[in-house]
Amino acid sequence: MYIxxxxxxxxxxxxxxxxxxxxxxxxxxxxxxSQRWISELERGKPTAELEMSLRALNALGLSLTVETQTPPxxxxxxxxxxxxxxxxxxxxxxxxxxxxxxVDD
Length: 105
Prior knowledge:
single chain, alpha+beta, two-stranded antiparallel sheet, 4 helices, 2 strands, elongated
């Protein structure tokens, strides 16, 4: 699933939470936040705190992978990505990182 905006992330969280048979209140308790915050996240509030959003994904067994492209060189061509940081399916010049690895549990 591509996450292009806050509403996409919110829909993903809502769908996964419901599939896990959790209420918003139960998920909020697991995260140490309020039911209102979970509701805002699920509705796609664009100012939802990133750290807490990533913790919500972790709590639901989801991971978020970000693809970044290496800036082009002076000729406008993409620089080759280092093979160790590239996913086998990612095109040359694309790096994938799992941002959940950046969040403390």
